[in-house]
Amino acid sequence: MVIGGELAGRLWVTNPRAVPAPVERRVIERFALVVALELLRQQHLVEVEERLSGDLIGDLLRPGGPSHPQGVLDRASALGHDLARPHVVAVLALDPPDAVPRLPEIVRAAVLQAGSPSTGPPLLGQHDDVLVLLLPAVAGLDDVLRAVLVQVGQALPARTATIAVGPATEELADHPSAYRVARGAVRLRRAAHPGGLVDVRDLGLTAFLLEQGAPDALRRFARNLLRPVVAHDARSHGDLLATLRAWLAHGCSTTATARELVVHPNTVSYRLASIERLTGRTLSRSSTRLDIQLALTVRDIVRVEHR
Q1: What is d(CA 44, CA 95) in angstroms, rounded to the nearest whole number?
Q2: How far apart (Å, rounded) are the C-alpha atoms in residues 292 and 138?
Q3: Which of 197, 239, 260, 278 is the Cys-Cys partner for 228 at CB 3.0 to 4.6 Å?
Q4: What is the rounded CA–CA span in Å between residue 272 and residue 259?
Q5: How many whole angstroms separate alpha carbon 293 and alpha carbon 245?
Q6: CB of 176 within 8 A of CB of 61?
């Protein structure tokens, strides 16, 4: 089935006779024409929707937010998206970074296949050098994005895909900042070992530092701060880093940390003192805790051991 010199599809017809009768041939040709026109119509609609989605995301991610918020909400609604609901901004980047025209189509199909009715289709658009996905902030989103990584890997085996999930947005003005945080995480991961899913939804003030920092500077900062602790654990098969993570996760509570690690509180205190001695930093200071939290976040994102 060829329309305007473009192959729209193929139609196979089984017939016991080698040559169909003229009336049969006319019926087949007309049927093929109808099918071909429908295929082209659907393809055209997808292309139009992708173009409109890309323009919408460009307006949404402008610094300071969109100049006409209600217009953005109305355009999103016309595309089947309620941006008044909390959404998550995800960023997908490929290495090598050459453009792949089919990428939005691949990602959309993967989300629809792995998602649920509450997830719905993503709002997609190229922005800068990455593909931006806007998805409702619902449960199971990590599984959907991992399915996207698998699908992209199968469709583009010569490329490595990295996805970062930024903070959830409560209103339209939150989207530019959430995008910059997610893009900063993608840049950081790609600068070290590209690939995989990076979740930076719940970083607090650390997200601002990730948003503003340069990848190389962040890596050096994290490596230099944590190097003595990591080296100590490697030499003595210790648990200083695990203790530090648990202590920060439990609001710097020695008792709660000891309960999680199933050790005596005095053991936790001893390990924290060792960390202070190795780093030369005082953990009771809020600035030290912020630095260490950022360093641990960077270490998780880049997925490399500090030497």
Answers
A1: 29
A2: 30
A3: 278
A4: 15
A5: 8
A6: yes
pLDDT tens digit string along 289-307?
878 988 888 888 876 443 3
Rounded distance between C-alpha atoms, residue 141 and residue 199, angstroms: 11
* pLDDT confidence bin for 218, thresholds 50/70/90: confident
pLDDT digits (tens, 9 = 90+) for 53-78: 888 898 899 877 788 888 888 888 88
CA atoms in the 13 A half-sphere facing the CB of 206: 23
Longest dimension (CA), the chain: 93
Rounded to whole angstroms, how far apart are CA atoms 197 and 193? 12
pLDDT the model gives residue 46: 67
Predicted confidence at residue 255, as pLDDT, reads 94
Alpha carbon of residue 138 to chain centroid? 14
* C-alpha to C-alpha distance for 162 and 11, rounded to whole angstroms: 39
Query: Among residues 244, 189, 249, 245, which one has the least CA distance to residue 219?
Result: 189
Reading the block at residue 288, the tokens are 């030290």
For residues 152 and 85, the answer to whether their CB atoms sit within 8 Å is no
Tokens of 94: 């490929």
Task: Tell me the residue length of the chain.
Answer: 307
- Distance, in Å, from the CA atom of 134 to the CA atom of 151, rounded to the nearest integer, reads 18
Cβ within 8 Å of residue 199, ≥6 positions away: 142, 164, 165
Tens digit of each residue's pLDDT (9 = 90 or more) over 187-217: 888 877 889 998 887 665 566 666 666 677 7
At 56, the amino acid letter reads L
